Each structure stands twice: as C-alpha cells, then as structure tokens.
Amino acid sequence: MDGRTQVKRAQRIGSLLALAVALALMVSGCNLIRFIDDVSDEDGTPVAEEATPTYTPTATHTAMPSPTPTLTITPRPGCVVRADWFNYVVQPGDTLSRIAQRAGLSTSALVQGNCLANANLIFVGQVLKVPVILPPTATPTSNAVPRILSFTLEAVTGGGLMVQWQTQNVGSVNLMWTAPNGEVLGTVSGQPANGTLGVPEFSPRYAPQVTYILYTVDAFGRDILDPAIPTQRLTAVLQVPVMPGFEPARMSARPEPVPQGGQITLEWDVPGQTTVAISRSRAGQAGYDRIASNLPAQGTLVTTLPMEYIDRVDFTVHSNTDDNEVYAGVFMGVIPSQTPLTCPQPRQTSQGVLLLTPDNRRSDGCSTGQPGQTLDIIYPEVPAQADRVNFFFLPLTGTGCNAPLGSAIPLGTDSDLSNGANINWVVNVDNCAGLLTGDALVGSGYLQGKELPIVIE
Fold first, then answer.
1. What is the 8-class DSSP label of residue 324?
2. For a 10 Å CB count at each end of the chain, is N or C smaller?
C-alpha cells in the first residue's frame, strides 16, 4: 500500500470518528429533557418527571454535555389564565387528574383555567393556577419511617425539669402532661422534631406521679400513626414521680366556654418567679402567639378573643426568655357567634347570575337557604356550543361549611341541555356563606361561568 492510499484511508477513518462523536453529543443533549407523553397515571393523565441527563462516553473522546434546553409552555391563543386562582408548583409524581381532584375541579376545568395548549404535557417546576391553596404533595421514600429515638427528662440546677427528645422523619411534636386521674395539667404544641423544653414540677397532691406524653405530627399537622401498631398514634410516655415540697404553678380562665370574640379573664400564680409572659393558640395552630410579657408572677389579665378562634383556645403562662419555659396552661371551648354572616360578593370573573328556586332573600337582598333544604340551581342562557354545565358551592366564611374555606364542593353536572341546565342540591352545610357556581364547558374547554351569592343559616 503506497503512502497516498494510507493518507486517504486515515482521512476516511477520521471523518467516521468525528461523525460518531457528533452523534453521541446529539443523543446526550436530547436526553437532558425527557418528554412524558408515554408516562401516565392510571387514568391516562401525564405524570410529571424530573429530567435526568445521560452521557455516552467513547474509548478515546470525552463527550461534553450540551446546554440544557428550556421547555416553555405557551398558553392557548385567545385564552386568559385564571388570575384569581393561586399558584401551585408541579411536584415529582403529580398528574393533572390528581391536582384537579385535590383542588375540587375536573381535569378539563384545570386545563381550561390554565389555558394549556397541550393537555398531555406537564413538567416538574411548572406553575399551574388552582382555585385553592394546595400544599405540595409529599414524596414518599422507602426509608422515611417515622421514629421516636429518645424522650428523657432531667432536673435543672436551681429547680424545674427539662424534657429532651429526638425523632426521625417527623414534622413536629406536641407535649401534654396529666395527673394520675387523667386531668390535663398542661399542653404545648408545634415544637421542633428534635429539641428541649422546660416543664413544671408538681406538688404531692399529684402523687404518685405525673405523666408526660410526646405526640408526633407530620409536616401538614396530621397525627402520625405507629408503624408497628397502625391503629395507634406514635407517642412516647414518661412517668415522673412528683417532687415533695414543691408548690406548683397555677392558671385559670373564665368564662368556660367563652363566646366567640368575647372577653376572657385569666388568673395565674407562678411561685419562684418574678415576671412571666402569656401566650395564646387556637386548635390546629403550630406554636403560640405571645399576647403579654413582663407580667408579675401572680396576677389577672382581661383579654379579648379574636373572631377567628371558633373551636378551642389554649393559654400558657411561661418565662419571659426565649426558651419559653412553660409553667402552667389552660384550654377552653369557644361558642360560635350567632352574628349574621355577611353576604359574599361575586368574583370579577363571573359572567352572569345563577337562578334559584325557591329564592328566599334576606333584607339585604342576599339569597338564603337552610340545612336539609332542597334548592333548584338554574344556569340561564347556556351557550349553544356547550355540552355540559358543572355546578359547585364555594364556601367563603362561616363555621359549619364542612370543607376548607375557599375549597370548591362539587354539586354535580347537567349534560342534558335541551331545556337549559339545572341541578338539585340538598343543602349539607350550616352557618356558611359562599358562592353557588356554574361553569359551562365544551369538551375540555371552558366557555363561561356564572355565580350566585348565598348564605346558609
């Protein structure tokens, strides 16, 4: 083989190697973003996945990753995204149907409200609009088993007790201490998953022991069940002998129960302290709100209960310092106010008014209903191209709405539009004001919505 032939062969081999490297780079670049049309939930809706970059090495070359392309979601032309809804960021494992179900919508209404041009494509990190505030879905992991690793108590120099705890895969903890007869002597909520807390000692009248209980809750404030005994809460218990000769702190409140928005008189006595602070918490609240500081160790305080306290209120008397050492506490029931509910206003996106039979009105003109009453909700002048109308009730204020405020309650769908659209609702809420809503749809598209303010009393 002469020199010229060798040169040509070498040139051909070099060209083939360059082509192979270019193809490897194209494949690795294309793998940086994975489209998800073929990854679906049980109902066929797409599952959001995170992009995983892959690279193709060669024997003599190192493939450099291509820049990650930006995936842009373009709204459907002529469609307006629901600006009056809340933002929700798509999480791994989310599907349109799951998000719609959590938000109280049909999948088609969610697609229409977000003007999605491609209903078969969502991705992790995408921002969608939903009518209620949704917490992100929790992503389960194989080793995320909740555990209480330790729960101990020790005496503090100069008097008092200190509990310490360590947990794993727990959102927060609540503590309660009780007398031998089951009387609740004090509570504290919303403590970190790992921490310490000063707790009171008690006089001999609580002999032979006081029981301290540690309760666990998840990131959404729900009780955690014991993995070993799924019918029981995951707790830890300390039974502590009482300390003779110690005079306990005391706290009381009246009246019990207290009217919503009413005044409460608190009394306390904390021996061995010079100043104290008082905090307040409502049912389900993580932690306490301090309402007064630098109070005398023995005294009385009159305070007004905020209107948002509608079930229970907890008070604690504790130290003025940042450690918030709890000396005593009291919790009491709240009587809901009988003040007439305010008639809500239709949203700016409403395109008309629903009709109601019977339509009883208050003196302010607001439509009313009663629990157990059957109401005929009518959607007048349905658009000719509509193939169905979905009806909802959106609770906005009240104490008996049987659903989170702002979370739509589906009432049903009317697909026979030959004589207009209507549906019967057997009222299943009480002391609740909100909006009756009807959405006219065609296919997966939203046409128009109408509303009617109503108060159920």
1. -
2. N
**β-pair type (263-269, 298-304):** antiparallel
Numbered ranges of CATH 2.60.40.1930 in the chain: 250-335
CATH superfamily of 147-241: Immunoglobulins (2.60.40.10)
Beta-sheet pairing, 388-398 with 432-442? antiparallel
Q: What is the CATH number of domain 355-456?
A: 2.60.40.10
For residues 120 and 95, what is the distance between their CA atoms, to the nearest angstrom? 10
Tell me the one-letter amino acid at 298: Q
CATH architecture of 250-335: Sandwich (2.60)
What are the pLDDT digits (tens) for 392-448? 998 888 877 877 877 888 999 999 888 889 999 999 888 888 999 999 888 878 888
Rounded Cα gap, residues 457 and 447, in angstroms: 32
Is 201 within 8 Å of 241 (Cβ atoms)?
no
Lowest mean pLDDT among 61-75, 361-375, 388-402, 421-435: 61-75
pTM: 0.32
Long-range contacts, 243-246 (Cβ 8 Å, 24+) = 243/201, 243/202, 244/204, 245/204, 246/159, 246/201, 246/202, 246/203
> Of the ranges 10-19, 89-98, 290-299, which one carries the lowest mean pLDDT score?
10-19
Is the CATH code 3.10.350.10 the one for domain 1-137?
yes
The encoded tokens of residue 401 equal 């709405």
CATH 3.10.350.10 occupies which residues in the chain? 1-137
